[in-house]
Design goal:
Blueprint: H1 15-20, H2 26-32, H3 40-52, H4 59-62, H5 75-78, H6 98-101, E1 107-111, E2 114-117, H7 147-155, E3 162-165, H8 175-186, E4 193-198, H9 200-203, H10 210-217, E5 222-228, H11 237-246, E6 252-258, H12 267-279, E7 283-288, H13 303-316, E8 324-327, E9 336-337
Parallel strand pairs: 2-3, 3-4, 4-5, 5-6, 6-7, 7-8
Antiparallel strand pairs: 1-2, 8-9
């Protein structure tokens, strides 16, 4: 079987072509990164884990990982682990009870004043710690024609002032579809803010197209783009080049991370992340402790350990570069800040 070549894609290659070339098995990731083969038992458990939550990772993201190193912080986020098959009693398939807030297909309304719209149910990468790895996307997959039903919910609730595009990943939409959706949201008078949460530009920087930038820069809505970056190694040259353009646009650029055991559970690593983000024009926003989703327990850290790391981080950085250490809890009116003490 031929070795899968590491990506040498033209910078101008369309992001959809790059997405179509993504790797979809643990075996292919191991070959691509020249990783050692697992034991027979671990391989069987990897296969079980892959059936429970499919493997999907674009090549440009893997190109940022160190070949031959199974403990690389990027590799560990996307390669299935045998530990995913262990059932933990304190973890669940719906740790944030989002089923209760899934008021209709395509809408999650948990917090006062803002609602999540799910215009796309797919992602460009399947992160192994994803809190929605068990989410019922099939029942929330809506067509462009059905958007109007979701938007009618928004139109009917004058208490809403912000729409958050989530998913899945909303930037999985084509630019023309996203353009139409934004136009429809702009037409709702009481909506003042638009927030887009996306990991796609991190794993495929080519998604930050000139057309997308132009559309988000020319809206009456106060627009924020929230990236999901957990480690400074994820900010490659391609992403840096794109961000150097985007930070001049007037769009607010934020980042949220998840505190992950064996990946970024170190104050120095988090310090480097915050400084790299700021140099790229992105402000650290949230540092989430792990949502206790079944299959991700091996990434979890005790709260005392999280607080210790956060105290160390706080001592190393100016306040504006310190993300808020938070936990999202089912039924709460907002995220819970985890105090330093």
């Amino acid at each position: 079987m031929p070795i899968i070549a590491r990506s040498t894609a033209d910078k101008q290659q369309d992001w959809r072509q790059i997405l179509a070339q993504s790797l979809k098995t643990a075996h292919d990731i191991r070959r691509y990164l020249e990783l050692p083969s697992p034991s027979d038992e671990d391989q069987r458990n990897e296969q079980i884990a892959s059936r429970q939550f499919p493997v999907l990772v674009p090549r440009p993201f893997l190109d940022l990982a160190e070949p031959g190193n199974p403990d690389d912080p990027i590799t560990r986020q996307v390669l299935p682990d045998a530990d995913e098959t262990t059932v933990h009693p304190l973890f669940s398939s719906d740790p944030l009870a989002e089923a209760d807030a899934n008021v209709q297909p395509g809408i999650i309304h948990k917090y006062q004043g803002r609602a999540l719209l799910l215009p796309a149910t797919g992602c460009a990468v399947n992160c192994r710690y994803c809190f929605r790895r068990h989410f019922d996307y099939a029942d929330n997959r809506i067509s462009r024609a059905q958007w109007q039903q979701s938007l009618e919910y928004v139109r009917s609730d004058n208490s809403l002032s912000e729409i958050i595009l989530s998913g899945g990943d909303p930037l999985m939409l084509q630019d023309d579809a996203l353009h139409q959706l934004i136009c429809d949201i702009e037409a709702i008078p009481h909506i003042r803010r638009l927030r887009i949460h996306s990991r796609l530009p991190v794993v495929i920087p080519q998604r930050l197209t000139a057309q997308l930038l132009q559309r988000l820069s020319n809206t009456r809505l106060n627009t924020t783009l929230v990236f999901h970056i957990n480690h400074a190694n994820e900010i490659g040259c391609e992403l840096q080049q794109q961000l150097s353009i985007w930070k001049q646009s007037g769009i607010t650029l934020l980042n949220q991370s998840v505190l992950l055991k064996g990946i970024n559970d170190d104050a120095q690593i988090l310090q480097q992340l915050s400084e790299s983000l700021f140099e790229s024009g992105v402000l650290p926003y949230y540092l989430h402790v792990l949502d206790r989703v079944q299959g991700a327990a091996h990434f979890d850290l005790p709260d005392d350990a999280a607080r210790k790391i956060f105290r160390q981080l706080h001592s190393k950085l100016p306040g504006y570069l310190v993300p808020r250490l938070t936990r999202e809890e089912a039924g709460k009116s907002g995220k819970t800040l985890i105090h330093m003490l």
